[in-house]
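Now read these lines:
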Amino acid sequence: MDYPPSPDSGFLADWTARLRAAAERPVVGIMLRGSHARRAATAHSDVDVDVLLGGAPYAARRAYLAEHGGRLTHVSVAARDVRSWVTRLGEPADWAFGLPVAAPARLLWADPHWRPRIDLPVLCQPAGEPQLEELVATLGKVAAARDAGDHLGVRLAAADLARLCPSVLRLANASVRVVSRRAAFAAALALPVAPPGYRDDMLLCLGLRPGSTGQLGAAAVRLVTGVLPLVRRYAAEIAEVAGTDLAEALVDGRLDRYVAQLTRPAGRPPRPRRESSPVPAPRAGQWVTVSVPDAPVTGAHPRPSGPADGGPARPSRLDPAIAARLRRTPDGLVAAVVRAHDTGEVLMVAWMDDEALHRTLTTGRATYWSRSRREYWVKGATSGHHQYVRSVALDCDGDALLVSVEQVGAACHTGHRSCFFTELPVDAAGDRS
């Protein structure tokens, strides 16, 4: 279908003269913004114009429908005093998900005195501050609405929470500038350093993917619990915005505990939870989804027992060079000793086969093989007590792995920080001669 051409220089010149003549205050500049300034306009695009005025602070909006090429064009005019317009360029854009902005613009006319200050081919605005406090507070609103059975409240709060996430994750990602709201949205979803399942959870919370309020609540929890370990090293930047106590709480684990507290329905005390399945059982009337890495490449079901030679029991995509160094049990397993990467504290012991090790190395999430259930499980998928892998080492015999993790919450299914909480008596009175 052929559309009339977008507004040409004659159309813009006519409107520039009209706006100068109709202004209530002295005009010092007229700026074209939006898709026409970016040369990305379509036949349906508005013509966005800033009219910059001298004198006292002033702001107003006007809308016009103008005939052009036999077609009506929407002209959107924002009138603002020039000093507040310049000041606003030093503030974050409210539509940019906290990301910095570099949006093309085109000066249509300017007073000679002001031209050097406003003849800007690109309008730059800084990134927003990392709103960690607001992110956690909004999770509290999600939890409060959930406990009250306020389904609309859950959806509204979850959408607000998703809009705050990129401002915090920006600390852990390389800087990227955006030119439009659409570009900001795409960049916010594509941040490379982000929690597992981040894009899907963002779309769900923003209401752009269908889901129940139970799914939205679970997605909001995953976003916040996933963000905290990724930004822990940036506590100094958090302190500049929200104060030292919140930054210290991020480092010492209090913030993780508080978030875990928000995930429990009001009035229900914490209780131990076994991670019996990669997919949690939903509460009545709710559905919950979790991100679980995909199945082995062949899609084959696990065999009831491993090969006699101690080789891999299940199909795997593990690097052959690594697989060749493993010394497995008859069931095809290698012991995985898990420790806290910052303190060295031993947290738990579990089992990995070749595919579990592959998933651990490639997803950054600790993944194990359950000998009793004969299935893979991702630590934290049901409890929220995630393990973000920092390093994996193989011992000299190849029959054990040392997995260093960022532990969120308790590592033990009993609710203890470590599985090794039972002290045994040691008789040190024996003969040492």
In short: Confidence is low (pLDDT under 50) at residues 1-5, 271-309. Residues 132-263 form a domain with the Four Helix Bundle (Hemerythrin (Met), subunit A) fold (CATH 1.20.120.330). The chain has three domains: 21-125, 132-263, 320-407.
